[in-house]
């Protein structure tokens, strides 16, 4: 595993579009926005493609 993951920024509007797109169920609803579990994320990018506010990106 490469160790790269996607992250969700504070721009997240909690619309939930990303959660069903994750093939490994790494995305869940957090207290104030959706979050990605870095232990599960495979960096496939499926979530980033459907985010309407571009709040998901590759971790720096």
Structural summary, described in words:
This protein is mainly β. The chain has a single domain (6-58), classed as 2-Layer Sandwich (Alpha-Beta Plaits), CATH 3.30.70. The protein has one helix and four strands, in the order E-E-E-H-E. The protein has one helix at residues 46-50, and strands at residues 6-8, 27-29, 34-36, 56-58. It has a two-stranded antiparallel sheet with strand order 1-4. A two-stranded antiparallel ribbon has the order 2-3. A hairpin with a 4-residue loop joins strand 2 and strand 3. It is globular, with a radius of gyration of 10 Å. The mean pLDDT is 94.
Count of domain modules: 1
* Name of the top-level CATH class: Alpha Beta
Determine the fraction of residues in helical runs and give it as a percent range. Answer: under 10%
- Secondary structural class: mainly beta
How large is the count of helical segments? 1
User: What's the CATH topology name?
Assistant: Alpha-Beta Plaits
N-to-C SSE string, H for helix and E for strand:
EEEHE
User: What is the approximate shape?
Assistant: globular
Beta content comes to 15-25%
Number of strands: 4
Mean pLDDT over the residues: 94
**Architecture per CATH nomenclature, i.e. the level-2 architecture:** 2-Layer Sandwich
Strand order within the widest sheet?
1-4
Biggest sheet character:
2 strands, antiparallel
**Rg, Å, rounded:** 10 Å
Poorly predicted runs: none
End-to-end Cα distance: 17 Å
